[in-house]
Amino acid sequence: MLNLILKDILIQKKTLAFLGLYIIIFSISFQHTGAGAFAAIAVAVTYQMVATACGHEEKAGSDIIWNSMPLSREKIVLSKYLSVFVYALLAALGYMAFTLLLSFVRLPFRIVPITMESVAAGLIGILLMNGIYFPVYFKLGYMKARVVSFVLFFVFFFGIMSLAEVVSSNQSNALLQTITAALHGASDLQILFVMIGAALIFMLISYALSVKLYNSREF
Amino acid sequence: MENILEIKNLRKTFKDFTLNDISFSLPKGYITGFIGPNGSGKTTTIKLIMNLLKKDGGEIKVFGLDHIRQEKEVKNRIGFVYDESHFYEELTVEEMKRIIAPVYEKWDEQQFQSYIGKFALPRNKKIKELSRGMKVKFSLAVALSHHADLLIMDEPTSGLDPVVRSDILDILYALIQDENKGVFFSTHITSDLDRIADYIVMIYNGEILFCTRKDELMENHAVVKGNLSLLDTVRSRNLVGIRKSSYGFDALSTDKGTAAAFAKEGAVIDKPTLEDIMLYYTRKEHSHA
Amino acid sequence: MNILISNSSTQPIYEQIADQIKDQIMKGLLGESEPLPSIRSLARDLHISVITTKRAYDELEKEGFIVTVAGKGSFVAAQNKQLLRESRIKIVEEKLAEAVMAAKSAELSFPELEEMLRIFYEEV
Fold first, then answer.
1. Rounded to whole angstroms, what are the CA distances from C114 to B16, C107, C118?
2. C66 and C17: one domain?
3. Residue B269: what are its φ and ψ, rounded to 5°?
4. Rg (chain A; Cα; Å)
5. A166: which of A50, B76, B90, B125 lies 20 to 30 Å off by Cα?
6. B192 at the C interface (CB within 8 A)?
7. H or E element at residue C16
8. Which residues pair with C36 in a beta bridge?
9. Residue A175 pLDDT greater than 80, yes or no
């Protein structure tokens, strides 16, 4: 199955080059936004990579090849889900590399360094976004799922950013205080883990659904 | 003789086409041609065997194994070549191999390299830069590099020049030296099968017209051309695809006796090609004899 | 072993092969116990189907010209020279009978037929 994830990377070699540019441009534009920066970038990067990978599958009609091979549909679906983590990792590495680069070179801007919160927020955003997208993709195919993917991207990209903003700047917000009270006693880290855990469970359910939908597909 | 492929009462219904309870069996060690005009159900049948389409009913056994219950084992032993390259155009031959090879249990890298060499396939060229013939040869190299026992080909030679087609046939001849392998070759370019095929299965409008040994098929059939008057005097019961013109009629006789009877009356009798057989049988529906 | 197949001949391919092999055996070009190519390699070399070569070999085996040993292949059978001569004589008898019938229907007399036979025997 590693070969399938490798495949998803190999077919978008060109995109990887753009990614570098993406990260640079986005991080510079978001330098004043605070914590939301990396999370939004992570969402953007994975969105782009998932879309490109799925687009290539559709273009080649590769479902026919993979399903003619001794490869279970579960594995085919799983590789797409796992590749999301790889993309997130690439985004993080790219961002950190850029941050490192900037610390050596004196340039007239600073970008927000990566933080645990932004990574977590990014991860949650990615998991939720793709968790919703993949069942649609596996059911309807890339072309029909494109609209959904686009809408999802906007919602999550701007949503994550604004959510991060709201959380970090509106500490006195009533709703937030209620939530904070409810999570009374739990440390920030614990809250983070719970949220990631929930997102992962969501992803798992999404995976099961995708498998079911893909299993009944015909080519 | 064991059967490498067994299809019983296979059924699949689409909006405007139905594969109607088809059945046929193929023995191992031979090359079987699957012929029929476009739209008859050849690709549908192959997709059903590969479980790319879900059958509505019936049984498919490959190597004696159920094609769904033992899907993985079956697919490990099948090599396939389809009419269009479904590989990623942006990847090179080598990269494509790297992602396919791990899927097969018995991938034989040495065999693959030897085929690549034999076909003169440039390893580091992108798939999209390969000619159509090279793409088919690449598919074939992959299909033959994991010790597959059954090679299924769906219209692999359409659009290829005679030289490449001949190369492909040579590979099939080499493959069939092993009596445990089999080839299932679907095509509407029947000239490729005229010599090499051992068995012929013909499908038309979702029904199997016949599944017989090619030599028997050719011997029992003949192209008959004669005067229109003969159609009344000699029994035309075993003629199919009768076409009449002001010069006479031509038809396919399905029985040696009928052909002989016509010959006695002065009709011209010719050996048929598979293409003739396919044409006359499918003309059956339109003749107003 | 030379085998040449004609596509345009009315004779089925398996018969052409069998006849040519038979011929070579009878002429002594293929010796006793000499191995024959496998049906599959023969099919490949002649570019015909395996079933066709199999049929040719089955025919040859039925008529006693070759022997097939499972797992080893096919070999030229020991030829009974007497039987061979007898079967060839039989062919001459058949052809003579045909010639006589044709002669009678063309109203040739026996002396005329005899004369023709002598000319042919000396020339061919």
1. 75, 14, 6
2. yes
3. -115, 130
4. 19
5. A50
6. no
7. helix C13-26
8. C74
9. no
Query: How many angstroms separate the CA of residue C68 from the nearest CA in chain B?
Result: 16
- Find chains touching chain B: ≥3 CB pairs under 8 Å: A, C
Residue C2 is assigned to a structural domain of this protein: no
Which of B195, B219, B271 is opposite residue C49, by nearest beta carbon? B195
pLDDT value at residue B287: 45
Task: Identify the CATH number of the domain in which residue C37 sits.
Answer: 1.10.10.10
Q: Contact at 8 Å (CB) between C45 and B211?
A: no
Q: How far is CA B27 from CA B46, B75, B202, C43, in A?
A: 17, 18, 16, 17
Using alpha carbons, select from B103, B286, B234, B230 the residue that is nearest to residue A2.
Answer: B103
What are the residues of chain C with a beta carbon less than 8 Å away from any beta carbon of chain B? Answer: 10, 12-14, 38, 40-41, 43-44, 47-52, 55
Residue with tokens 């030829």: C79
| Residue B35 near residue B274, CB atoms below 8 Å | yes
Residue B244 CA, chain-centre distance (Å), reads 30
Cα C106 off chain centre by: 30
In chain A, whose CA is at the least distance from the CA of B152? A68
CATH topology of domain B3-216: Rossmann fold (3.40.50)
Tell me, what's the ipTM?
A: 0.89
The model carries a pTM of: 0.86
Same-domain pairing of C60 and C108: no
User: Quick check: B51 and B71 in contact, CB under 8 A?
Assistant: yes
> Could you list the residue range(s) of the whole structural domain that residue C37 is in?
13-76
The partner residues of B151 in beta bridges, in order of sequence, read B79, B183
Q: What is the pLDDT of residues A36-85, one digit of tens each?
A: 678 888 888 888 899 999 999 988 899 999 999 999 999 999 999 999 99
Subunit contact B215:C14, Cβ cutoff 8 A: yes
Residue A28 and residue A35: Cα distance in Å, rounded?
13
Q: Would you call B198 and C49 a contact, using CB atoms and an 8 Å cutoff?
A: yes
**B4 near C CB under 8 A:** no
Q: What is the pLDDT of residue B124?
A: 92
